[in-house]
């Protein structure tokens, strides 16, 4: 039995900076049709959990479909398609990203499965509570926790870059204006953080002790950027090196910054884990028992606190998949396999033109030879 990881469905061609996370809806519907035709039994995580206690009952026709982050397209595409084929899945939600709107938006059902009636605005964004509640009540999509924030934070005083609006650092804007998180796919947020802001080594929120740069360093960095940049979005390598060298000397000298204390770190972790669980349970009128770590980021403390908060299982990152772990304990780990619609060849990423791409991908991951050959040939032809 495999647990598959999806994120977005139907936004692979919208120009979204993280479009690589999105699956072509034709690929997805073909995959769902295949699962239905082959009599796969798609499980929610409660079912998966129970089967861990008696693995003799596990069948090669058991499958778990999961969707991270709570994108609007899970309502627009994934939910109607899975409902159409009698499948079940799990959506992991970050409450800080839930859209504040109060009306359910269009989806494939309301436009009679005519995708041409959906615009980019209809597809991009995050789920709101009415959509989340309907999906959870339907028995098609079980809703569980993805922590509160999905943030990244600085983890050391080592400067690695200068912010000039790069999309890879959009999380800086989430920290600056968390109330705008649900809209980051639809609006230009790059000026929420001033250009010239130093970017330090960073990682997932629940895997680190947070580092706070000195405010005086930030002001000097922004001022230096303003003095050196002839164009606000262009900074030569030489100018960037000069600024970073100077800032690094300030960090090692009079502006070292600080790290959060043990107590502050524990309080932040508790907010991420306990509060997300509380909000979801309050909104959905049910017990929330499963946790997906954003970006696979966790450490011993966050895992310990996830147990204390009442989760009975959490996802396992790809880096730990080959480590020894036992699901004989009450608290279990959920290894997952990523699914996508793109072909990767070196630094090049191309969309697959095979309508059965996900079917081949899934079967290749189960060890079947012919699908592996087909995917290799496809890669050679890119």
- Following the backbone from N to C, one meets helices and strands in this order, namely EEEHEHEHEHHEEHEEHHEHEHEEEEEHH
Give the oligomeric state of the chains in this entry, treating copies of one chain as homo and distinct chains as hetero.
single chain
Classify the secondary structure makeup into a structural class. alpha/beta
Low-confidence stretches: none
Query: How large is the radius of gyration?
Result: 22 Å
Helix run count: 12
Could you explain how this protein is built, in words?
There is one protein chain. The protein has helices at residues 25-37, 45-52, 73-84, 120-123, 129-138, 170-176, 215-228, 237-251, 262-284, 300-308, 357-365, 369-381, and strands at 2-6, 8-9, 22-23, 41-43, 62-68, 89-93, 141-145, 152-162, 198-204, 211-212, 258-259, 290-291, 313-316, 332-335, 337-338, 342-345, 348-351. The mean pLDDT is 95. It is α/β, with parallel strands linked by helices and 382 residues long. Helix 11 (357-365) packs across helix 12 (369-381).
